[in-house]
Design brief:
Blueprint (H helix, E strand, L loop, with lengths): L10 H14 L5 H8 L4 E6 L5 H16 L3 E6 L5 H12 L4 E5 L15 E4 L8 E4 L1 H14 L5 E6 L4 H16 L9 E4 L3 H12 L7 E4 L2 H14 L8 E3 L5 H5 L6 E3 L2 H16 L7 E3 L2 E3 L10
Length: about 300
């Protein structure tokens, strides 16, 4: 049952044991295995917001990769720095856990000491820990170039109320693009919102109060962009005739929004799987190189030529 039967027992015997285990409903005892091996075959994934769909898909990718390596993933919701996040990490660290993946959440100081379980950071560059990033800069540049080719020069920004490195990179590319084209980003409408339907629609209405100053709005992600399309529909603003809207991530909501969203497609499952692969390499005593994963511009009906 340990997977070490090859060359030690006959295949017929191994098949008989596996059949008997299935018939009896046998399951390995994880606690006993951890005591014998000195490892738990479990890793923690700490995310900043368990309700956001991108994190759920990242978990799925990490879980699939972990399962293939005979590991399981334990999910912790950090809730943007809530006390229970660090408390949960400490409880696992004191028990049976082999390492941690931190996605948009900061590893506590206790994991920065020598002898701590290995850590991999997701969507944040780190000099101390291996990390995996999405190529946010390239994706934002491609999206802004798409808007530029449609004639948009004055582009507003719909931001996440919770800042983080991935959002900061998008914002920096937006600001640089505007300056390069003779527009002061401080003069452009900028509104921030939490990732909920109620909050994003309300903030969308606030942003639309200044729609006369812009022809397009770049959103930190598809949840915010979808909320803005609802606000535009409620306000009688034609998208994209009067205002183009673009998101980020290519979540399912991007395809069912009205109109469907132009966005930047990322692969959260690949992000989670890659993060686990880096952590597994650390657990095997290797020194893995950090990775940057590609993204892709997806053009749909929410963007069109700038109104004259």
């Amino acid at each position: 049952m340990s997977g070490k039967a090859a060359g030690r027992v006959s295949e017929a015997t191994a098949d008989a044991v596996r059949r008997a285990a299935r018939d009896l409903g046998y399951r390995p005892n994880a606690a006993a295995r951890a005591l014998r091996s000195g490892t738990a075959s479990a890793v923690g994934l700490v995310v900043s917001d368990v309700t956001h769909p991108f994190f759920g898909l990242t978990l799925r990718g990490a879980q699939r990769a972990a399962w293939e390596a005979d590991h399981v993933v334990v999910l912790i919701d950090d809730a943007y720095g809530a006390a229970w996040g660090d408390g949960s990490v400490e409880a696992l660290r004191a028990g049976s856990i082999d390492g941690f993946l931190f996605f948009a959440a900061d590893p506590p100081a206790s994991l920065r000491k020598s002898g701590s379980p290995p850590v991999v950071v997701v969507e944040a560059a780190s000099k101390r820990f291996p990390h995996v990033l999405l190529d946010v800069a390239q994706g934002t540049d491609a999206l802004l170039q798409h808007l530029h080719e449609l004639g948009h020069r004055r582009i507003g920004y719909f931001a996440s109320a919770i800042r983080g490195e991935t959002f900061d990179r998008r914002h920096a590319r937006w600001a640089e693009h505007l300056r390069r084209n003779g527009v002061d980003p401080d003069d452009m409408p900028y509104v921030a919102s939490r990732f909920t339907a109620t909050a994003s629609i309300a903030a969308g209405h606030e942003l639309l109060e200044r729609r006369g100053e812009v022809t397009a709005i770049l959103c930190d992600d598809d949840v915010l962009a979808s909320g803005l399309t609802v606000a535009a529909r409620e306000a009688g603003v034609d998208v994209p005739g009067e205002l183009s809207i673009a998101g980020f991530d290519d979540l399912d909501v991007a395809r069912i929004a009205s109109p469907p969203l132009t966005t930047v497609r990322a692969d959260p499952e690949a992000l989670g799987a890659t993060a686990f692969e880096l952590l597994l390499a650390r657990l095997q005593g290797k020194r893995p190189r950090s990775r940057t994963l590609p993204v892709e511009l997806v053009v749909r009906e929410s963007t069109g030529p700038a109104p004259s």
